[in-house]
Amino acid sequence: MSGIYIHIPFCKQACHYCDFHFSTSMKKKEEMVLAIAKEIQMRKSEFEKEQIETIYFGGGTPSVLTSEEINFLIAEVYKNYSVSENPEITLEANPDDLSSERIIELSKSKINRLSIGIQSFFEEDLQLMNRAHNSAEAKKCLEEATQYFDNISLDLIYGIPEMSNEKWKQNIETALSFGIPHISSYALTVEPKTALNKLIQTGKIAAPKDDVAQEHFAILVETLEGNGFIHYELSNFGKENYFSKNNSAYWLGKKYIGIGPSAHSYDGISRSWNVSNNALYLKSIEEDKLPNEIEILSITDRYNEYIMTGLRTIWGVSLDRIKTEFGSEYLEYLNKQTQKFLDDDLVFIENNILKPTPKGKFLTDGIASDLFYLNLE
């Protein structure tokens, strides 16, 4: 199983918390679509023996593309790669782009999964985050999208300053009221070069609090699991048969090609990433050069990545795989590092699989970093 990720580096406006690569100028949009199509063609030899099972439009805001542009890029993938009979094809979209007409258009395309950036149903939260949509648009687009799409995910952000537990519960309950089968939810994170960081530094808004985020996370897990969702990855919850195939492939170490500015790729032994600059990307593609850097992953790199991704998922970290793939020295190190977390009831081992306990889930990334091996080679 392999996937193609297509990064669309445009947004109508900059959300205060976002540090992903994008431009708010649409001047080069048509040129960028053609360049992305060309990169799709240029890289087909990388997946000659692979079958594509997922195509994912991320960003940025892919829904700023016209339906014709989206269909054109999907057609380029089909033209240049072997695509499975029923691939998962996801479009990230913002509510303000999902008019009734647009939803109907998309439903007639090969897009069969929408990932909608709701973030919150409260006006004050959306304004604080500088989202382009309002609460009414969020609800309206979900009402209409669910009439045409069965497979929908929505994003919610928790740990927002001044968000009470009760308000957070209301956000979750509102999301559930639409019958959505997948929810991704993330803590509001303050990245260095963002407007959010500046607002906090200048005292205009309060900084998010870790203890509040932890409470919100506990409410999230309890509420969604109580409503039939499976907590299959730290930030992702899905009903049976509605896990994100694209994201699951990433966490399970499957191969993928990232197309577009700043997109990352992985082939099992190396990782590469495209330049995070639209102008440089366009120039490079025009000159028939791939605008990427490549890193060959050492055995330690691969071990650390497996620890990070495995610990975040319901599939956990297989101790048998650690020994087979990385060797007994890595397994001994892992067992030694794991002991303190076992003692604190933050992780457990069952059927030789290491997983976080409910108590340890919120701390997964910190636990994983303590299990990394940096100097073995």
Automatic annotation (TrEMBL):
Lineage: superkingdom: Bacteria
Classification via PROSITE patterns: RADICAL_SAM
SMART domains referenced in this protein's UniProt entry, alphabetically: Elp3 (SM00729)
One record GO biological process: porphyrin-containing compound biosynthetic process
Alphabetized Gene3D superfamilies for the sequence: tm_1862 like domain (3.80.30.20)
Swiss-Prot/TrEMBL keywords: 4Fe-4S, Chaperone, Cytoplasm, Heme, Iron, Iron-sulfur, Metal-binding, S-adenosyl-L-methionine
Subcellular location: Cytoplasm
Coiled coil (residue ranges): none
A GO-annotated cellular component: cytoplasm
Record-annotated Radical SAM core domain positions: 1-230
Molecular function as annotated in GO: 4 iron, 4 sulfur cluster binding; coproporphyrinogen oxidase activity; metal ion binding
Coarse class of the protein's main subcellular location: cytoplasm
Main function: Probably acts as a heme chaperone, transferring heme to an unknown acceptor. Binds one molecule of heme per monomer, possibly covalently. Binds 1 [4Fe-4S] cluster. The cluster is coordinated with 3 cysteines and an exchangeable S-adenosyl-L-methionine.
Family: Belongs to the anaerobic coproporphyrinogen-III oxidase family. HemW subfamily.
PANTHER family: COPROPORPHYRINIGEN III OXIDASE (PTHR13932), RADICAL S-ADENOSYL METHIONINE DOMAIN-CONTAINING PROTEIN 1, MITOCHONDRIAL (PTHR13932:SF5)
Name by which UniProt lists this protein: Heme chaperone HemW
Name of encoding gene: hemW
